[in-house]
Amino acid sequence: MTQSATKRRWSLHAGLLALWFAASFGLVFFANDLQMVVANWPVGFWFAAQGSVLVFIVIVAIFAWVANGREPPQAGFDSVTYAVYARTLHRRFAWYVVCLLFFLLALAFAERMGMSKVWVAGTFLSATLVLYAVIGVYGRTAEASEYYVAGRRVPAVYNGMATAADWMSAASFISLAGGLYLQGFSGVTGEAGGLAYVLGWTGGFCLVALFVAPYLRRMNLYTVPDYFAVRFGGRWPRIIAALAAVLCSFTYVVAQIYGVGLITSRLTGVHFEIGILLGLGGVLVCSFLGGMRAVTWTQVTQYVVIILAFLIPVSWLSYKQMGNPLAPLAYGQQLQKIAAMELELRDSPVEKQVIAEYAKRARAYESKLKDVDGALQAERQELRRKLRALGDLRADDERAVALRRDLVAVPKDANAARELWTRAMAENWARAKPLGGMPMHSNPFSGDPVGSADQKQEFETSRMNFLALMFCLMVGTAGLPHLLTRFYTTPTVAEARSSVAWSLFFIALLYLSAPALAVLVKYEVMAHLVGQPFDSLPAWVGQWARDPSLLVVSDVNGDHILQFAELKIGADLVMLATPEIGGLPYVVSVLVAAGGLAAALSTADGLLLTIGNALAHDVYFEGESDKAQAMRRVMWSKFALLVVALIAAYAAAQRPAGILYLVSASFSLAGAAFVPAMVLGIFWQGATRAGAVSGMLAGLSVTIYYMAINFPAVRSALGLAGDGLWWGIQPVSAGVFGVTAGLVTTVLVSLGSRPQPTGFTEVA
What angle is formed at CA 343 by the lines to CA 338 and CA 344, rounded to 5 degrees? Predict the structure, then answer.
């Protein structure tokens, strides 16, 4: 590469990186100063929810266009044959979309003609799972290049769809809109979130395009640990990278299988654990039989289901409320109405009654915790006294049954009581706040930059947590092995660049709509649900309230009217219940559930494949191999995948944490483990094996330590007081410290060690 060409390349990188930084961290930092309203939109909110995402798409598109224009045609690539192959795929894809739409319309007509809900759900679920299974069986292979990288012949647009399906996990489909509903722009004190997820999960693709994907693709690898072996040489870089891939992917896949169980149980009515096993069967058929070849084309079909399942109910709710089906363009007016209703609710006397009752309950639990043994004994005696009184008065059996149930529910011992009452006290204190503890939806950060000292500190901590979470999600995106492996499947480096652009475009279709859905559902709740008598609430409230983790309604102040603070909605409810909230046919509810299932299955496919390949290809085997050994390697990958899938299913059945938290934690782990050593290895010849190994270990160690030491159970077991936070950063953003530690360690150790000859030549 000539000096002038190198200068042009770096000028392109520098300019696009500066634009990326300004559109993300720059705008977010000054979001509180951008509160002027233009065309119904608070400017800061619009950029965080939409404007910056559009800028990110422009960045990756410009990079692909300019870099591909400068690059000569790849040697040995037959463009004519490839064009014919692509046209064949276009025809098949068009037929698939038409048939899917026709199938949906036919089911809607059958429902209208009297087909039962059970049959509608069963038919649609069976049809989609059979489709995925057929693709899995048709794509079965034992050939290494097909199993690991789909033969490197997936066109950019289809790889973009497959990547989008792989990327839009259960967290994106099920929990993102719910998280935005609950957290607004930036979350609450101690829980960053909101639009940080939208910015982080889209802005990270700029880093993938500029610094990772095309350079890894040029090396013709199979897995991400392959890169560490080729670049740094020796066994340890590959082993550490493989184990790190297993760790972050396992954390991620547990969340997906949890989502599979949740949706399958909702769709079929079976128990949660049975739902996990049913969904797991769909995952294994694709990833076990055909590897990346089958997974790729399954994910393409799943993307269509996912995007239709999200856009149809959002568009309908938007049309119902505003007469405009283009929700991302129109929901600004609802945002302004919500802001006005939030102020009314904060000043409402009946809302204050509910808040006072929650505070009273919290103080009662606080009092019990001062003498747990005495309070436990007094509670049992009081319930027994009431039972005796009812018996003496020959009261109705219903009240007696309820009292007996309460008596059975009394904690068995002091430890159980302490744990239960501590949790109840915290929940009641959390709800003993305006809007049930939820932030003002369009407020950038909590606290007040011009208020008291405490309010200023709260504001700075809130903004810092938002930026930290966004950073972890972006850098983690550039390090997630199951995502990077997708760009190995394109036929050329140029197609890999284009594929990143297509991926972000297809992802943005959902991510631009998720904030709209959160606002539309919140308006529906505030305008049409709050203030209704309890006996007049719509049917969907009673149906979803059967699961307290998704919906709780209680007449706290006893006026038989639903107040906003008396309603507790779980994050996973918002998307799943949207069709019922909007009054759509049941077939759309089934489509939404199938979309969530497709999102969880598609991501679980990619993650399990990554774990199996890391264990068999990178840990068990290493080095060059003949064809027979390559086939044995594939079989070991399949076996490892099966074992890990069963372990992950068991872990998911324990319901370890929320989907969004588990997914976010995996981003911190991936960013800290891979990105510093990987990017330095690509762009800096001075990076050494010792530096890479030390950097990966340092990044992982710091991240895991920070997460573990701030886990409540760990702090309680070690007798640690306080929260243990560094500069107020929440544990989910531990990657901030891990990435920094990994970067500094890699550089310092590389400068102090001698490079080992590996045969690696610069790819940048």
Answer: 95
